[in-house]
Amino acid sequence: MNINAGTATEPGTCFIMHFYKAGSIDVTAALQALKTESAGDTAGLLFTELATHPMTINTSEGAKNYTLYQYEFSGPASKSMAKGSQFAYVPLKDGYIEIKGYCEVASDLANTIPAFSAVGFKLNSNN
Question: Which of 39, 40, 61 is nearest to 48 (CA)?
């Protein structure tokens, strides 16, 4: 599911995505892998943690608490990419919810926080 702020003619500068994935997740290892994958071997790309936010999402397993991690890309190699990124994982019984978000400007990440409160995840019992 993608959520984007804006209008039909002006799509906005931020969006967030939610994915359900089967299996288990080690949140600490997954966040480290995202940092490594995002930064890659690109010289001149800095990945700086900006903030963490305690969040809650309603799921078919009830309310689940998680932490949203917000980062900024900077440096010469970041010219053509979104500068703000955010990631979170919500472990569930048989899988997990992966949350990602991006903003053209890192200072806009704070504007996405209300959108997270509007999202819930109810799994179909036939899956």
Answer: 39
CA distance 13 to 86: 14
Q: Residue for token digits 């209300």? A: 114
Give the rounded percent of residues in the chain with a pLDDT score beyond 70. Answer: 79
**Distance between CA 82 and CA 87 in Å, rounded?**
14
DSSP string, 4-73: E-S-SS---SEEEEEEEEES---HHHHHHHHHHHHHTT-TT-EEEEEEEEEEEEEETTEEEEEEEEEEEE
Q: What is the pLDDT of residues 109-122, one digit of tens each?
A: 888 888 888 888 78
Q: What is the tens place of the pLDDT at every residue in 22-61? A: 999 998 898 888 767 655 555 567 778 899 999 999 999 9
**Neighbouring C-beta atoms of residue 105, cutoff 10 Å:** 13
What is the DSSP-derived secondary structure letter of residue 115?
Answer: H
Nearest alpha carbon to residue 4 among 103, 106, 117, 88:
103
